[in-house]
Write a structure and sequence with these properties.
By secondary structure, the protein is α/β, with parallel strands linked by helices. It has one domain: 3-Layer(aba) Sandwich (Rossmann fold), CATH 3.40.50. It binds zinc ion. Zinc ion binds next to loops. The site of zinc ion has 9 residues, from loops.
Length: 216
């Protein structure tokens, strides 16, 4: 039996006839993950990322981050230390945060593997289009949590999955071979309950802001 990596609940397998792959959907938190037989090698994964046009030359890409900063970061933090975790080949968000006065850091296991980010504590940590690539999102959040100040915010973007599995099976986002797991509002809530974060805001579509839950 495949256990849900988010809540450890039981899962039900289902097949994607178009892509000829299997998924497991959690019976409790509704998280959908691809079966491990579909996971690609690190070399293949990096090759996919190399093709992403995520640079300052893409005005749409830059505008998306500017909106993210205005809508989901500046209402909470306008200065301090920021970490863009999983920044990819072109660290656009890192650069924008720096430009508006944050003491910015970034890390990416493929492109900026320098682990000096571990030496700081952050007011803001961003994970944009990262969590859907993780085999074990819970352990990554658990590892990042001590790096976030008690009043800090963690900003996560990922496309929330369609609620119906029929719609899921025609959804573009699942086609990327490096996308391994898919959240909806229920599985997001389960992830943050499990890892000790409280939701501050979400657009219920692709962005969610959380803070560490205060311990009594
Ligand atoms: Zn679950």
């Amino acid at each position: 039996m495949h256990k849900c990596p988010v809540c450890k609940g039981s899962t039900t397998p289902f097949r994607d006839p178009q892509l000829s792959i299997m998924y497991h959907v959690c019976d409790t938190c509704q998280y959908v993950c691809k079966d491990s037989t579909t996971h690609v090698s690190a070399e293949r994964e990096k090759k996919e990322y190399d093709h992403h046009q995520n640079t300052f030359n893409s005005t749409g890409y830059v505008a998306r981050f500017q909106r993210l900063i205005e809508t989901f970061i500046q209402p909470y933090k306008t200065e301090g230390a920021a970490l863009d975790f999983g920044s990819g080949p072109g660290p656009v968000l890192y650069t924008l945060l720096k430009q508006i006065g944050f003491e910015a850091h970034h890390y990416d296991p493929y492109y900026y593997p320098d682990k000096s980010y571990l030496d700081h504590r952050y007011d803001v940590i961003t994970m944009t289009e990262v969590i859907e690539h993780l085999k074990d999102p819970k352990s990554v959040l658990n590892a990042l949590k001590p790096l976030l100040k008690p009043s800090g915010v963690l900003v996560i973007t990922t496309e929330f999955r369609p609620e119906s599995l029929d719609e899921f099976l025609t959804w573009w986002y699942r086609r990327d071979v490096t996308h391994l797991g898919f959240f909806n509002a229920v599985s997001m809530h389960a992830l943050f309950t499990q890892t000790g974060f409280t939701i501050r805001s979400t657009n219920h579509r692709n962005t969610i802001v959380v803070s560490p839950t205060p311990s009594d």
